[in-house]
Amino acid sequence: MIQLQNVHFSYPHSAPIVNDVSLSVSRGQVVAVMGPSGCGKTTLLRLAAGLLSPSQGQARLFGAAIPYDDARALREMRKKMGMLFQFGALFTDMSVYDNVAFPLRENTRMTPSEIDAVVLKNLSAVGLDDVSAKMPSEISGGMARRVALARAIVQSPSVMLFDEPFTGLDPIAMDAIARLIREQTDALDAASVIVSHDVQETFAIADYVYVMHQARILAEGTPSELLASDDAFIRRFVHGRSGVAA
User: Fold this and answer.
1) Which of 38, 125, 132, 152 could tie 97 with a disulfide, CB 3.0–4.6 Å?
2) Nearest-CA neighbor of 125 among 176, 201, 182, 186?
3) Considering the entire predicted model, what is its pTM?
Protein backbone atom coordinates (compact mmCIF):
# COMPACT_ATOMS: atom_id res chain seq x y z
CA MET A 1 0.00 0.00 0.00
CA ILE A 2 2.88 2.36 0.80
CA GLN A 3 6.42 1.88 -0.44
CA LEU A 4 9.42 4.18 -0.31
CA GLN A 5 12.50 2.94 -2.13
CA ASN A 6 15.90 4.53 -1.43
CA VAL A 7 14.25 7.91 -1.03
CA HIS A 8 16.27 11.10 -0.58
CA PHE A 9 14.94 14.59 0.07
CA SER A 10 16.71 17.89 0.60
CA TYR A 11 16.09 21.54 -0.15
CA PRO A 12 18.55 23.35 -2.46
CA HIS A 13 21.95 23.96 -0.89
CA SER A 14 21.03 22.16 2.34
CA ALA A 15 21.92 18.87 3.99
CA PRO A 16 19.64 15.87 3.34
CA ILE A 17 16.50 15.76 5.48
CA VAL A 18 15.75 12.20 4.38
CA ASN A 19 18.74 10.18 3.21
CA ASP A 20 18.40 6.80 1.43
CA VAL A 21 15.29 5.64 3.31
CA SER A 22 13.23 2.59 2.37
CA LEU A 23 10.07 1.38 4.09
CA SER A 24 6.87 -0.43 3.25
CA VAL A 25 3.40 -0.73 4.77
CA SER A 26 0.89 -3.45 3.88
CA ARG A 27 -2.86 -3.68 4.38
CA GLY A 28 -3.86 -4.14 8.01
CA GLN A 29 -0.54 -2.83 9.32
CA VAL A 30 0.16 -0.01 11.74
CA VAL A 31 3.74 1.07 11.10
CA ALA A 32 5.46 3.64 13.30
CA VAL A 33 8.25 6.04 12.38
CA MET A 34 10.01 7.24 15.50
CA GLY A 35 13.13 9.14 16.48
CA PRO A 36 14.35 12.41 18.01
CA SER A 37 13.13 15.82 16.86
CA GLY A 38 14.60 16.99 13.55
CA CYS A 39 15.53 13.54 12.26
CA GLY A 40 13.23 13.72 9.22
CA LYS A 41 10.09 11.88 10.39
CA THR A 42 7.51 14.45 9.28
CA THR A 43 9.27 14.96 5.94
CA LEU A 44 9.17 11.20 5.41
CA LEU A 45 5.42 11.19 6.09
CA ARG A 46 4.90 14.02 3.59
CA LEU A 47 6.84 12.05 1.00
CA ALA A 48 4.58 9.06 1.62
CA ALA A 49 1.53 11.30 1.18
CA GLY A 50 2.74 12.77 -2.09
CA LEU A 51 2.97 16.24 -0.55
CA LEU A 52 6.68 16.31 -1.35
CA SER A 53 8.52 14.74 -4.28
CA PRO A 54 11.73 12.81 -3.57
CA SER A 55 15.01 14.28 -4.79
CA GLN A 56 16.02 10.67 -5.55
CA GLY A 57 14.33 7.31 -5.20
CA GLN A 58 10.69 6.42 -5.65
CA ALA A 59 7.50 6.71 -3.60
CA ARG A 60 4.56 4.43 -4.42
CA LEU A 61 0.97 4.33 -3.16
CA PHE A 62 -1.58 1.59 -3.83
CA GLY A 63 1.03 -0.21 -5.94
CA ALA A 64 1.63 2.70 -8.34
CA ALA A 65 4.17 5.52 -8.55
CA ILE A 66 2.80 8.76 -7.10
CA PRO A 67 1.75 10.94 -10.09
CA TYR A 68 3.35 14.22 -8.99
CA ASP A 69 2.94 15.83 -12.41
CA ASP A 70 -0.72 14.90 -12.87
CA ALA A 71 -2.84 17.03 -10.52
CA ARG A 72 -6.10 15.21 -11.30
CA ALA A 73 -4.62 11.73 -10.76
CA LEU A 74 -2.91 12.90 -7.58
CA ARG A 75 -6.21 14.29 -6.28
CA GLU A 76 -7.98 10.99 -6.99
CA MET A 77 -5.23 9.10 -5.16
CA ARG A 78 -5.50 11.39 -2.15
CA LYS A 79 -9.25 10.75 -1.89
CA LYS A 80 -8.32 7.30 -0.61
CA MET A 81 -6.03 8.77 2.06
CA GLY A 82 -6.56 10.39 5.42
CA MET A 83 -3.89 12.53 7.06
CA LEU A 84 -3.57 14.05 10.50
CA PHE A 85 -1.14 16.97 10.22
CA GLN A 86 1.26 17.75 13.04
CA PHE A 87 -0.55 20.92 14.10
CA GLY A 88 -4.08 19.79 13.24
CA ALA A 89 -4.55 22.24 10.33
CA LEU A 90 -8.22 22.87 11.06
CA PHE A 91 -10.04 25.53 9.06
CA THR A 92 -10.34 28.33 11.58
CA ASP A 93 -13.44 29.85 9.99
CA MET A 94 -15.38 26.58 10.07
CA SER A 95 -17.09 24.92 13.02
CA VAL A 96 -15.90 21.59 14.37
CA TYR A 97 -18.77 19.91 12.52
CA ASP A 98 -17.98 21.60 9.21
CA ASN A 99 -14.27 20.74 9.52
CA VAL A 100 -15.09 17.05 9.78
CA ALA A 101 -17.80 17.25 7.10
CA PHE A 102 -15.51 19.05 4.62
CA PRO A 103 -13.94 15.96 2.96
CA LEU A 104 -17.35 14.31 2.57
CA ARG A 105 -18.83 17.40 0.94
CA GLU A 106 -15.85 17.81 -1.38
CA ASN A 107 -15.24 14.21 -2.37
CA THR A 108 -18.54 12.31 -2.14
CA ARG A 109 -22.14 12.55 -3.27
CA MET A 110 -23.56 11.81 0.15
CA THR A 111 -26.80 13.50 1.14
CA PRO A 112 -26.82 16.03 4.03
CA SER A 113 -28.47 13.46 6.30
CA GLU A 114 -25.87 10.83 5.40
CA ILE A 115 -23.06 13.32 6.05
CA ASP A 116 -24.64 14.25 9.37
CA ALA A 117 -24.70 10.63 10.51
CA VAL A 118 -21.07 9.98 9.52
CA VAL A 119 -19.75 13.23 11.04
CA LEU A 120 -21.48 12.67 14.37
CA LYS A 121 -20.33 9.05 14.44
CA ASN A 122 -16.70 10.09 13.98
CA LEU A 123 -16.92 12.95 16.47
CA SER A 124 -18.39 10.49 18.96
CA ALA A 125 -15.51 8.09 18.28
CA VAL A 126 -13.02 10.75 19.42
CA GLY A 127 -15.25 11.82 22.34
CA LEU A 128 -16.26 15.21 20.92
CA ASP A 129 -19.84 14.89 19.71
CA ASP A 130 -20.86 17.57 22.25
CA VAL A 131 -18.65 20.31 20.69
CA SER A 132 -19.74 20.01 17.06
CA ALA A 133 -21.09 23.58 16.92
CA LYS A 134 -17.98 25.20 18.43
CA MET A 135 -15.26 26.96 16.46
CA PRO A 136 -11.63 25.76 16.65
CA SER A 137 -10.75 28.85 18.70
CA GLU A 138 -13.26 27.77 21.34
CA ILE A 139 -11.73 24.37 22.07
CA SER A 140 -8.41 23.25 23.59
CA GLY A 141 -5.39 22.21 21.56
CA GLY A 142 -5.89 18.57 22.53
CA MET A 143 -9.53 18.71 21.46
CA ALA A 144 -8.55 20.32 18.16
CA ARG A 145 -6.18 17.44 17.51
CA ARG A 146 -9.01 14.97 18.10
CA VAL A 147 -11.22 16.92 15.67
CA ALA A 148 -8.42 16.70 13.10
CA LEU A 149 -8.23 12.96 13.70
CA ALA A 150 -11.99 12.61 13.14
CA ARG A 151 -11.58 14.51 9.85
CA ALA A 152 -8.67 12.28 8.81
CA ILE A 153 -10.69 9.07 9.18
CA VAL A 154 -14.15 10.34 8.15
CA GLN A 155 -13.92 8.91 4.61
CA SER A 156 -12.83 5.46 5.85
CA PRO A 157 -9.56 5.79 3.92
CA SER A 158 -7.39 2.92 2.71
CA VAL A 159 -4.22 4.72 3.82
CA MET A 160 -4.02 6.73 7.04
CA LEU A 161 -1.09 8.94 8.00
CA PHE A 162 -0.81 10.36 11.52
CA ASP A 163 1.76 13.01 12.46
CA GLU A 164 2.15 13.10 16.26
CA PRO A 165 -1.44 12.00 17.02
CA PHE A 166 -0.86 11.88 20.79
CA THR A 167 0.59 15.38 21.30
CA GLY A 168 -1.36 17.51 23.76
CA LEU A 169 -3.64 14.67 24.91
CA ASP A 170 -4.24 13.59 28.48
CA PRO A 171 -3.51 9.91 29.26
CA ILE A 172 -7.15 8.83 28.94
CA ALA A 173 -7.61 10.54 25.57
CA MET A 174 -4.23 9.25 24.42
CA ASP A 175 -5.23 5.66 25.14
CA ALA A 176 -8.60 6.14 23.42
CA ILE A 177 -7.01 7.62 20.29
CA ALA A 178 -4.40 4.85 20.12
CA ARG A 179 -7.13 2.22 20.30
CA LEU A 180 -9.16 4.06 17.67
CA ILE A 181 -6.22 4.08 15.24
CA ARG A 182 -5.69 0.35 15.76
CA GLU A 183 -9.40 -0.45 15.46
CA GLN A 184 -9.85 1.67 12.31
CA THR A 185 -6.82 0.06 10.68
CA ASP A 186 -8.15 -3.41 11.41
CA ALA A 187 -11.78 -2.66 10.48
CA LEU A 188 -10.87 -1.06 7.13
CA ASP A 189 -7.93 -3.37 6.40
CA ALA A 190 -6.06 -0.11 5.89
CA ALA A 191 -2.37 0.78 5.93
CA SER A 192 -1.48 3.24 8.71
CA VAL A 193 1.69 5.16 9.49
CA ILE A 194 2.22 6.92 12.81
CA VAL A 195 4.96 9.47 13.42
CA SER A 196 5.30 9.79 17.18
CA HIS A 197 7.62 10.39 20.12
CA ASP A 198 5.37 8.47 22.48
CA VAL A 199 6.99 5.05 22.84
CA GLN A 200 4.47 3.44 25.18
CA GLU A 201 1.27 4.22 23.27
CA THR A 202 2.86 3.69 19.86
CA PHE A 203 4.50 0.36 20.70
CA ALA A 204 1.18 -0.87 22.11
CA ILE A 205 -0.53 -0.68 18.70
CA ALA A 206 2.29 -0.83 16.11
CA ASP A 207 3.08 -3.95 14.12
CA TYR A 208 6.46 -2.65 12.96
CA VAL A 209 8.67 0.31 13.85
CA TYR A 210 11.31 2.28 11.98
CA VAL A 211 13.64 4.42 14.11
CA MET A 212 15.19 7.43 12.36
CA HIS A 213 18.30 9.34 13.37
CA GLN A 214 20.09 12.05 11.40
CA ALA A 215 17.92 11.59 8.29
CA ARG A 216 18.42 7.81 8.04
CA ILE A 217 16.74 4.66 9.30
CA LEU A 218 18.93 3.58 12.21
CA ALA A 219 16.96 0.49 13.20
CA GLU A 220 13.74 -1.33 12.41
CA GLY A 221 11.76 -4.24 13.77
CA THR A 222 8.74 -5.21 15.82
CA PRO A 223 8.22 -3.38 19.11
CA SER A 224 9.41 -6.45 21.03
CA GLU A 225 12.57 -6.67 18.93
CA LEU A 226 13.41 -3.01 19.55
CA LEU A 227 12.69 -3.32 23.26
CA ALA A 228 15.26 -6.12 23.38
CA SER A 229 17.86 -4.25 21.29
CA ASP A 230 21.41 -3.92 22.63
CA ASP A 231 22.13 -0.82 20.51
CA ALA A 232 23.00 2.09 22.81
CA PHE A 233 20.95 4.70 20.97
CA ILE A 234 17.91 2.44 20.65
CA ARG A 235 18.07 1.56 24.36
CA ARG A 236 18.22 5.24 25.23
CA PHE A 237 15.34 6.16 22.96
CA VAL A 238 13.08 3.25 23.91
CA HIS A 239 13.85 3.05 27.60
CA GLY A 240 14.79 6.68 28.28
CA ARG A 241 18.19 5.71 29.67
CA SER A 242 20.68 8.47 30.28
CA GLY A 243 24.39 8.55 29.83
CA VAL A 244 24.41 7.37 26.24
CA ALA A 245 25.52 9.77 23.51
CA ALA A 246 22.87 10.42 20.86
Assistant:
1) 132
2) 176
3) 0.88
